[in-house]
Structure formats: C-alpha cells, structure tokens
TrEMBL record, chain A:
<keyword id="KW-0479">Metal-binding</keyword>
<keyword id="KW-0636">Prenylation</keyword>
<keyword id="KW-0653">Protein transport</keyword>
<dbReference type="GO" id="GO:0048471">
    <property type="term" value="C:perinuclear region of cytoplasm"/>
</dbReference>
<keyword id="KW-0206">Cytoskeleton</keyword>
<keyword id="KW-0072">Autophagy</keyword>
<dbReference type="GO" id="GO:0005829">
    <property type="term" value="C:cytosol"/>
</dbReference>
<dbReference type="GO" id="GO:0046872">
    <property type="term" value="F:metal ion binding"/>
</dbReference>
<dbReference type="GO" id="GO:0005819">
    <property type="term" value="C:spindle"/>
</dbReference>
TrEMBL record, chain B:
<feature type="domain" description="FUZ/MON1/HPS1 third Longin">
    <location>
        <begin position="409"/>
        <end position="509"/>
    </location>
</feature>
<dbReference type="InterPro" id="IPR043970">
    <property type="entry name" value="FUZ/MON1/HPS1_longin_3"/>
</dbReference>
<dbReference type="InterPro" id="IPR004353">
    <property type="entry name" value="Mon1"/>
</dbReference>
<dbReference type="Pfam" id="PF19036">
    <property type="entry name" value="Fuz_longin_1"/>
</dbReference>
<dbReference type="GO" id="GO:0006623">
    <property type="term" value="P:protein targeting to vacuole"/>
</dbReference>
<dbReference type="Pfam" id="PF19038">
    <property type="entry name" value="Fuz_longin_3"/>
</dbReference>
<feature type="region of interest" description="Disordered">
    <location>
        <begin position="1"/>
        <end position="47"/>
    </location>
</feature>
<dbReference type="Pfam" id="PF19037">
    <property type="entry name" value="Fuz_longin_2"/>
</dbReference>
<feature type="domain" description="FUZ/MON1/HPS1 second Longin">
    <location>
        <begin position="281"/>
        <end position="379"/>
    </location>
</feature>
Length: 204, 520
C-alpha cells in the first residue's frame, strides 16, 4: 500500500468542548458518541475522500485540542491549511470570543486559508431557544466581515454537517487552480519534509 | 498474631531486627543457586529495556535523602491541631466502614460532608503560593482555604530551615512532597508507609510534568507566582484521576515494572523485527501495547525508557478514547528521560476496534507524516510475515490461570524479574473477582512490598497468615516474588511452592517475557 495522498489540509479550531471532535466523528464515522466529555490530546488526523462532481478529493482533517496547553503547538496544525473550520458553541458566548481569536490568528499567519465559521450544538437550541447565546445574524455579520462562510450544525442530529464539509471540498476544488498551478498539487503523506522548527528534545 | 517472619530473626514488628548488614550476610546464599540478577527467569538476553537496577529506590532516593537529613523532625505533636482542619475529627471505629465509599468520583462532592472526609486516600496538588491545582475529590475552588492551611504548614516548617515530611495522627497519614514550584499532599487512611505514599505523589508530580515539562512549569511560576495552573491543565484531570486509580489497582506501578502480553516468542520476534525495520531518523521509541500489556518495545540504541515514563504513556493511552478517532499526534514530556522538553508521540490503534495500540515517539514535532509512514511500513511487514494473525490470536487470551502452574493451594502471585523490569501475574481467581476483593489483595501486596523495601529495615522474606489468605513475599538480587495461598496452606507448602513456581516461570519465560529486546 502506498502512502495516502491528501489534497487539502483542513484544520478544526475552537475553544475546548465546543464539539470539534464530535463534528469530525459525525462527518467521518457517521456517529455521535454519547458519554462523558473527553478532551482531545494533542491533535488527531483523519483522511477522508469526498466526491466533488466528477472528482474525488481527499481532505486531511486535523482535529486539534482546544485546551490552552496545546496552543503553542497549534501553528504546526494550521500551517499550509487550505481551510479552517473555526467552531464555537451556540450556547456559550465565551467560545465565540475564542473563535474571533482564531480568526485573527489565521488572518495574520495563513492568508490562503479559507475560513468556515461553524456554530455547533444546534440541537440544543432547537430544544430550548433560550439557550442561544450567539445570535445568528451577529455571527453572519462577522462571517461576512472576514469573508468567511457561516454554518450552524448539530453533530448529534447530523444537521448541516455534510453540507459544511461538502462546501469545504467544493471551494477547494474551485480555487485549487488559482493557487496551485505552479506547485505540485497535493501533499504526499510519505514525503520527507524539512523541519523549519527546532525540536526541543535532542536525544544526544 | 497474624504476621510472622519467615526467618526467626526477622520479627520486625517487635523492633528486634538485627543489624541489616548481618542479616544480609546470613541470607546471601540463595536457596536456588544461579538466581542472581541477570539469570533469573524472565531476564533479558541482551541489555535490558528499561532503566531498572534499583528502580524503586531510584524513585524515592531523593526523598530518602531528605528524610535522613531531617530525621529528627517530628511535627506530629504541634500539628495535630491543624490536622483536624484537614481530615476532620474521626474515630477509629468509623473508619472501618469507609473502605468501599471511595467509588463515588463525582467532582461536585460537598467538601464539608462526612462522605468527602471519609475517602481512603486524598491527593491535593497546590502551587507554592497556596493556589489549588488538583484535588482527587470535590472541587478545587471549595478547597482553597484547606490548601492554604497545607501551604502554611509547609512554610511554617521551612521557616525553621526544615522540611515537613509527614504528620501521623488520628489514624491518618498526611504526607508532603515539595517539588518546587508544586506542593503535593496525600492524606491516607490506608496502612501504606510514608514511603509508598510519597512514591504515589511522585507519580502524580511526573504526570503533571509530562503534560507541561518542568521548564514550562518553572517559567510560568517565575513570571507569575499566583498563576492558576488549572488553566493549563484543563481537561487533564481525568488523567490524574485514572493514574490514582491505577496506583490502587495496578501491580506494575507497585513493582516498578510492566507486564507483557503472553505471546509465542517466534511471533513476538517477528513483531519486534517488523517494528525495528520501520525506523526513521528521529524515532526514539516504538511501543506496541495490547490494553495494559506490552507486546514489544524497540528503542534507539543507548536510549532507555524508564518504567515511570512507560506507565505515564500507558495511562495516557488507556485513559483516553481520543486516539481511536484517527491518528493522534501529541507533545509528551517523558520526565524520567528529560524534564526539559517534549517528545512528540504518534499514537494510533492498528484497527478501529482493536486493542493493539502503536506509539511512535519522535524528537521532531514536524514528524507526523514520517511516523504515519513508519506505521504503514510496520503493518505491511507484519501482514507479509503473517504475524498479525498470531498476534490477534494471542489477544484472545491476554492472561492465564494460576491453575496452569499446578500448585493447588496457590491462588495468585506477582513475579518481577529485576534485570528486565518486567513482571508476570495470573488473572485473579474466583475469590478475588469483585473490585473490593482485588483492591484488598493489592493492599496486602502493597503491605508486603513496604516491608521488603523498608528504608532502614528491609526484609528478604516475609510470611503472613490470616483468616482469608496466607501470603509469602521473597526478594533476591534477581527477582521479587509475592505469593497468595489459600488460608488452609502451610508455611512449608508455601516455601516449597516457590521452587515449583520458579521452575514453571522458567519453562514459560519466552512466552511471558520479552527476552530479546531490539534496538534500531
């Protein structure tokens, strides 16, 4: 088996416990795990092929940990990303502040990265409207201001999840020629890369 | 009397233990010749896989030094008053009923309740500014004043140019471990020795260091003394909770050793060599786990993995479902290797529902795709040489029954080969099937372990009869052995069982242990 090819790097960002992992679980494994909250350790990588028109595009999805502890590491996950899904919890206004932080970070460091603003846990709102802390229109305005797409999803019901990733893949497909004509398209998972960051552990 | 030493001179309960030197000389000749370090059953053929030799002592050595320096220090009288604040006033009669109540692990517990006070073992972590960082039970916020008192005790003794080690009062032991910039406090109603409790606090300390590195920890507190470390540790509390649970249950943490998945040596060799072949420039350790059992470990030449670091990795993998989602990539500090920096670990299961988890430890944080590639190469080679099937078969019986040994009165045992740092133990028999019984048996083993590793009066062997079981513990330069017999067995039978068991382990050693560890 040869190393898997990934066309587009997609990174999940957002405050802890907003549901980044659940979103990926729903999209990749079509399931929603009920149970005590478990935070992601470091980051998890999944490659997922997706059909766009005639073509199959493989998304390499980096599900990052929201915990502050890993913040220093986040750069390696979003570097070179073609899309960032910045998540916030519709029932938690502080998570929206955090989303703004990530947007700023991306605008400063990754200008070619397309931003998708994603409000999660929509099912909770459906159950009880008073839980909503982030107004749909406020988020929409913010998205327009930064030139991002805006989605509200529920990983529990699956609402809008496939649409979100489909949009990511389509946008990639449409813009792929724009940026990538000069360079080779895609990243070979097996290829050796030079590290431009020093490693902190030298074993000799 | 329910305790009786095997050799007449060693009745340590009466405090008449002869000088250690003389005892050692008398007992030097082992009844089973050849069983010295390096030749015992389970000893590796080449160099060992871990930093081992005096691993248990290694862990507590620092603390022991301090202990000797401050030998005269006994604060129990003065501090009894304050202690009541910490542990509440409790009579001994009340304690007996509490042994099972530790199951409720709810964080929302009311810290002023009787239930909270009666937990068998509390663990608190605070900063040197007295800010709460972790509590095993209840919430940190609710305990800020209690932790303030703890810090006051530490500072009070420090002001006299001394170090507080422990307080014994009211059936309770309060053990302090100062590891600047952290202070760890254990409050225990168990009969574990200070040394054992201190060892457990060390583990918790290393758990925290493994998430942050000591360098970062120092840096944070140098900048801001009253920093709330919980911000950085958010979401990791369950790792510490689980580690504490393991400390009560896992013989590996007690013995400073790890156990292996029983596997035919031919199959294990194929797995090991496949891992060895899947190497990369920055790869330092490749570890294959089956649940809590080691399948194999391949390391870079001259680099050793300490068993504490390995247990921290076990705990990380075992506590989290996060790595089942995809390929995990996380910074991890292995504190016994280097407290200053992070390694980067590629953690993934071989198959979605499989118990087999592969951990590839690299020095380079950009190495994810290289590690991912190593894993693919490993899998290809494994299936090409059809070892994968053998491995999956072995997973169906990850343990063995004590009946296989053929000693009728023997119920359970722990055997550690000192030179390889590996131990083996059968599954718990019927009588120890409940969680409470297993924890009770582990408690008994801990007791024996304390006696064998007593800082000033270590025992070579120890036989103890009780109503529920008879226990024998024996340590030589090559191995450590703990046996549990039915209460109907006799001492003569127990002693003769040792030889029989050692022969059996010798016969099975290439299945139960990793005899030929590989390096890249």
């Amino acid at each position: 088996m040869s190393a898997m090819r990934v066309d587009a790097k997609v990174v999940m960002l957002g405050k802890e416990s907003v549901g980044k992992t659940s979103l990926v679980e729903r999209y990749v494994h079509h399931r929603f795990l009920v149970g005590p909250y478990q935070n992601t350790i470091g980051a998890a990588f999944v490659a997922k092929p997706i059909q766009v028109g005639e073509k199959v595009i493989t998304l390499g999805i980096w599900d990052t940990a929201g915990s502050e502890r890993y913040e220093a590491m986040s750069r390696i996950y979003y570097r070179g990303a073609r899309a960032a899904i910045v998540c916030y919890d519709l029932t938690d206004s502080s998570s929206f502040q955090r989303a703004r932080f990530w947007v700023k970070e991306l605008q400063n460091c990754e200008e070619h990265c397309k931003i998708y603003l994603c409000g999660t846990k929509n099912d909770l709102i459906e159950g009880d409207r008073s839980l909503r802390q982030i107004d749909y229109h406020d988020a929409q305005d913010f998205a327009e201001e930064i030139g991002a797409q805006h989605f509200e999803t529920s990983s529990k019901t699956g609402n809008n999840v496939d649409e979100l990733f489909q949009k990511v893949a389509e946008d990639y497909n449409n813009t792929a020629f724009q940026y990538m004509t000069a360079e080779e398209t895609g990243i070979d998972l097996g290829q050796k890369k030079d590290s431009y960051f020093y490693s902190c552990c030298h074993n000799n | 009397m329910d305790g009786q030493a095997l050799r007449p001179t060693a009745s340590w309960e009466n405090g008449t233990l002869a000088p250690v030197d003389r005892l050692r000389a008398e007992r030097a000749d082992s009844p089973t010749p050849g069983l010295v370090e390096g030749t015992e059953p389970g000893a590796g053929q080449k160099s060992a896989m871990f930093v081992h030799a005096q691993s248990f002592e290694d862990l507590t050595a620092e603390a022991e030094e301090e202990a000797r320096r401050d030998d005269e220090l006994d604060k129990s009288g003065e501090c009894a008053e304050e202690l009541k604040v910490l542990v509440g006033e409790k009579t001994i009669e009340e304690q007996r009923n509490n042994s099972i109540s530790s199951e409720s692990r709810s964080k929302e517990e009311d810290v002023s309740s009787e239930a909270w006070r009666s937990h068998r073992k509390h663990v608190f972590v605070l900063s040197e500014a007295g800010k709460p960082i972790y509590t095993r039970y209840g919430t940190e916020e609710a305990l800020s004043s209690t932790m303030g008192v703890m810090m006051a005790l530490v500072s009070f003794v420090e002001a006299e140019k001394n170090i507080i080690r422990s307080i014994h009062a009211d059936g309770c032991k309060v053990v302090f471990l100062t590891k600047s910039p952290l202070v760890l406090v254990g409050v225990s109603r168990t009969c574990q020795s200070d040394k054992e409790l201190l060892r457990e606090l060390q583990y918790i300390y290393y758990q925290i260091v493994s998430l942050l590195t000591l360098t970062q920890l120092n840096h944070i507190f140098q900048h801001k003394q009253n920093y709330d470390l919980r911000r950085l540790l958010a979401g990791s509390e369950y790792l510490t909770d689980n580690l504490l649970h393991r400390l009560d249950r896992d013989p590996g943490l007690l013995l400073s050793a790890v156990t292996c998945l029983p596997l035919a040596s031919s199959a294990r060799d194929v797995v090991s060599s496949s891992l060895q072949a899947a190497k990369a420039k920055n790869l330092v350790f490749s570890i294959l786990l089956a649940g809590d059992r080691l399948v194999t470990l391949v390391r870079k030449k001259d680099q050793f993995l300490h068993h504490i670091d390995l247990h921290l990795v076990f705990n990380l993998v075992g506590s989290s479902s996060s790595f089942r989602e995809g390929e995990g990539w996380t910074p991890i500090c292995l504190p016994k290797f280097n407290t200053a920096g992070f390694f980067h670990a590629h953690i993934s299961y071989l198959e979605p529902a499989s118990e087999l988890c592969l951990i590839l430890v690299s020095t380079d944080r950009e190495d994810f795709f290289n590690m991912s590639d190593c894993k693919q190469r490993f899998l290809e080679r494994l299936s090409k040489r059809s070892a994968y099937q053998a491995l999956k078969e072995a997973l169906k019986c990850p343990t063995y029954s004590v009946a296989q040994v053929g000693i009728p009165e023997l119920r359970h045992f722990l055997y550690k080969s000192k030179s390889s740092g590996l131990y083996t133990s059968p599954e718990f028999p019927e009588v120890y099937h409940s969680d409470e019984e297993q924890e009770r048996l582990m408690g008994l083993y801990q007791d024996l372990h304390s006696c064998l590793h007593h800082p000033t009066r270590p025992l070579r062997s120890f036989y103890r009869c009780s109503e529920t079981e008879n226990l024998l513990a024996w340590v030589t330069s090559g191995f450590e052995l703990y046996l549990c017999f039915s209460p109907l067995g006799t001492k003569a039978l127990a002693v003769s069982a040792v030889n029989k068991l050692l022969k059996w382990i010798r016969k099975e050693e290439d299945r139960l242990f990793i005899l030929s560890p590989l390096t890249y």
